[in-house]
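Quick start: what a row looks like.
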Amino acid sequence: MILIGLTGGMASGKSTVAKYIKENGIPVFDADACSHELTGKGGAAIDKIIETFGNDFVIDGVMNRKKMAELVFHNEKEREKLEKILLALIWENAEKFIQKNKNFPAVAIDAPLLIEKNWHKKVDEVWLVYIPVAEQIRRVMLRDGMTEEHARARLATQMTTDEKRKFANVIIDNSGKLEETLKIVDKEIARVCKK
């Protein structure tokens, strides 16, 4: 089994690629969805969030995402505390998912922070969904209704896609038409699944 780490910058089209990979028979673990589950009602991270940040950060058994975002977006120490709680639990769930799907020729871990959190060292291959920065800004503005200034500020908090390229085994260029992107993905799926 080949373990693929799928990543990409904000608005790069990573979710579209992940969905396509899944539709083509490769099980995909979604780190963001897992994080959402962990911080949702009855989630495994809730008690630790209360213990670390206080009762104000949980409403009706669910993490107050807006309040938490306001805290961690501007405060690296607080963000690190939240990540410390979540990342270990997410990886624990990822390992269970990998184990459950070990008979497939390939399994993908869809994680936006794959490289930043050193998870690229836990996978066999890194697949990067790539778009140039100017296109990324345009898409973020369009998708999230942000100003260019706000979009640039959000992107400035992340590792650039150009930096991520250095860690990638496979570059999935998503700056053109979707069919062109999916052709690249088809080729890589065929290779890892030996179709």
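That is the whole record. The chain has a mean pLDDT of 92. Strands lie at 2-8, 28-30, 58-59, 62-63, 106-110, 125-130, 170-173.
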